Amino acid sequence: MKRTLCCLLTLALLLLTACRNADKTPTVGGGFAMGSYLSARLYGADAGIVNEMLADVAALDGEISLTNKDSALSRLVAAGGGDADDTLLSLLRRSLDLRRETGGALDISLGAVTTLWGFQTDAPTLPDDAALREALRHTGAEKIRIGNGTLTLQDGVIPEPGAVGKGAALDLAAARLRSSGATGLVTFGGSVLLYGPKPDGGVWGVGVRDPKGGENDYFAKLSFSPQKDEAVFISTSGSYEKAFTENGRTYHHILDPKTGYPVENGLLSVTAVSDDGFLSDALSTALFVMGCGEQAFALCEKYGTGAVFVLDDGRVAVTPDLADSFTLTNTAEYRLTDGGAA
Q: Structurally, how many domains does the chain consist of?
């Protein structure tokens, strides 16, 4: 449900700093995967590690992609289930667990609905009300059954792991860096991985995209100093991503699982920060659906995840654990709320 290549520059983050020490020249590389561009700037690594990361992501895509009709998941959907690899089953299981924890805000059973909207294509469109109601009949986590090495899909349900795929891919990238002893940063779609300390001893700075501005406008900065073998994952979900206008109204790709229509709760974007890539990606979507309130803040606390909520009236709410890492730079259009949830 998230971010294709054409939306790469709509990701909510821009890395603002890079080491320029001639003695610590970075290895820079990247490539296309999962419909987005993966970009890496690494220290203490050879060029081969970037290719290994891309191979890891390609293998993951071969398991979980719905746009690739030859992927394991696509074949399982067509057959209504069957034997499945543990990589796919583990990702689905974690997603279903998080669905329960978020009260359904993260719902990977919406594939029939997202297909109607066509956000994974170059020509999304407003679906017919009757067709949307019919698609909603084929959703529901209870229709996704995970067994011992098997997946059963009932009543035409289509699992859609797009809300967690990029984060899971960055978990694989972090594992590569951990095993190699390298440090650095990796961007992928709307997600970023910072791994280990900055070589010059400074702070990694990450710009948070202005949801009211252009693709290169930023309204705030997040700063982190991860230690050796520590990872920081940052993911953003925004209403400006994959949006289209029809009959004078704009629709975005973050859907309310209850209605099948785009969420309308005053939020423009949510940025989630975690030490787990899957969680940062999944919770950025779940928190957007939940809205900026006590329930969302409680969920962040439970999972040890920081978050930045941007509302359409210019208010910005930041969870307490990010207070020292967050700097509001566009004070003309945005203002911090007092004491948490807006």
A: 2
> In the numeric block, which tokens belong to residue 179?
């095993």
Co-location of 122 and 13 in the same domain: no
Q: Which helix (H) or strand (E) holds 13?
A: strand 13-15
167 lies in some domain: no
Q: What CATH code is carried by the domain that includes residue 30?
A: 3.10.520.10
The pTM (predicted TM-score) of the whole model is 0.91
Six-digit token string for 257: 């699982």
What pLDDT sits at residue 106? 97
- Provide the residue range defining the domain that includes 197: 5-44+183-336
Distance of CA 244 to CAs 101, 103, 124, Å?
Answer: 31, 28, 7
Rounded to an integer, what distance in angstroms lies between the CA atom of residue 167 and that of residue 169? 5
Per DSSP (E only), the strands in the chain are 13-15, 27-33, 36-43, 81-83, 144-146, 150-153, 183-188, 191-195, 204-209, 218-224, 231-238, 244-246, 249-251, 267-274, 306-311, 315-318, 326-328, 335-336
Element (H, E) at 30: strand 27-33
Instruction: Give the closest residue to 165 by CA, choosing from 7, 8, 58.
Output: 58
Which residue, among 43, 51, 39, has the nearest Cα to 15 in the 3D structure? 39
Q: Which residues of the chain have pLDDT under 70?
A: 1-23, 338-342
pLDDT at 338: 67
Distance, in Å, from the CA atom of 167 to the CA atom of 188, rounded to the nearest integer, reads 9
The residues near 79 (Cβ < 8 Å, ≥ 6 apart) are none
Q: Fill in the DSSP letter of residue 252.
A: -
Pick the closest to residue 31 from 62, 55, 9, 13 (CA basis).
55
